[in-house]
Amino acid sequence: PTPSVPRSVVLVGAVPNPFNPATEIQFALPQAAGVSLRIYDVAGRLVRELVRGALPEGAHRVRWDGRDGDGRGAASGTYVARLVVDGVPHARSLTLLR
Please, what sign has the CA dihedral across residues 30, 34, 37, 43? Predict the structure, then answer.
């Protein structure tokens, strides 16, 4: 594989982290796959869905602006970015500082 195409799914995490007002969640796929990327609060409630659908192999960056699905600013705190690739979950924590 080329440097941007890993041998397995890589969820790098959020950069910057902690963040305000926005962060980029970085991940890489070894092959094209069905992907879901969602942000959850620490209680497990869905805050926002950022990606749902097929993505090509290689590196990806998805911006989260710290807002929920209704466009409201999320509270300061710890959140979980949950990436599911072909049914396999991967997760990283991220911290929003308002």
Answer: negative
pLDDT digits 0-9 by tens, 8-39? 999 999 999 999 999 999 999 999 999 999 99
CA distance 93 to 79: 6
- Cβ contact 35:29 at 8 Å: yes
Residue 18 is given by DSSP the state S
Token output for 44: 């497990």
Pairing of strands 77-85, 10-15: unpaired
Answer for the pair 81, 91: CB distance below 8 angstroms, yes or no. yes
Cβ proximity of 64 and 22 under 8 Å: yes
Please give the radius of gyration of the chain, using alpha carbons only, rounded to the nearest integer: 13
CA distances from residue 65 to 12, 13, 57 in whole angstroms, order as listed: 18, 15, 25
